[in-house]
Structure formats: structure tokens, C-alpha cells
Amino acid sequence: VKLVIWDSVHPCYTVFHEQTETFSSLWSEYHDDFRQFLHIYSQDVACYGENLAYFPKGFIENMFFVSANPWVSFTSFDLNVANMDNFFAPVFTMGKYYTQGDKVLMPLAIQVHHAVCDGFHVGRMLNELQQYCDEWQ
Q: Any bridge partners for residue 12, and if so which?
């Protein structure tokens, strides 16, 4: 197995198909500017969102996975990826948000492969995410 450091990685997110109760995995090119990224994302969903293929836009190697489970609020979530012996991409799974007092909370499960990421890196990412959320208000 040869590990690679990518110059950029792109989010691959799930698109739920209510009619068939299935989902697709769709990726969008990352952009530093959130408005530009939102535009790219919106175009991709408009173009590929109704396509029932698992990877309607195709598969790229330099992506990470983002999934939402808005029906359930959880305290733990474990994902097993079958037939992918060399699966090193991180997976972020968000659950149903809820209010607690004056705060809005949302569960977030992070699954990483220890060969490419340590708890230090997860902690740094969580601290940066919290800072971003605090500034966003």
C-alpha cells in the first residue's frame, strides 16, 4: 500500500432518494470560498441529484466522506466499509440536531484510519470546527 498526500481533497456526500429509500454518493470540488463552494455544490446536486447510481458523478480518489442521518440523534456511530481493504479516507457522519437549553447541538461521528490519522489530528480538526461554528453565529 502506498500512501499519498493530496494537495486538495473534495467532500463526497450522500444524496437520499426518498422514492427508492436509497442514496447516492456525490462529490463536489472543494473551494476555499464558501459561497463559491455552495454554488458548485448546488450545480452538482441539480445535475446529478436524481441519478440513482451509487457514484453518479464518478469516483475520484482524493475525497473524504460526509453523511447525514437526520432521522436519529446518536451518541455513537460506527461504519463498516465492505470490500475496501485500503480505505483510508475519513468519514464524517452527522445526526439529528436538537436543542438543549439555549444551545443547538448536533451529533458528529468521525471515523479515521489510524494508519493515516491520530487522535491529535482529530482533536485539532474538532477545535477548528468549533471555532468556525462560534464565529459563524
A: 27, 65
- DSSP strand E in 52-136: where? 63-69, 91-95, 98-100, 103-105, 108-111
pLDDT digits (tens, 9 = 90+) for 50-67: 999 999 999 999 999 999
Q: Which residue has the cell 489510524?
A: 114
Category of 21 on φ-ψ map: left (φ > 0), alpha (ψ -120 to 50) or beta: left
pLDDT, tens digit, 9 for 90 and up, residues 8-30: 999 999 999 999 999 999 999 99
| Domain 10-135, classified CATH 3.40.930.10, yes or no | no
Q: Map grid coordinates 438543549 to a residue.
A: 100
Q: Is residue 17 flagged as an active site residue?
A: no
pTM score, two decimals?
A: 0.88
Query: In the chain, what's the furthest Cα-to-Cα distance?
Result: 48
Q: Which of 17, 39, 113, 114 is catalytic?
A: 114
Closest C-alpha to 109, from 126, 123, 92 = 92
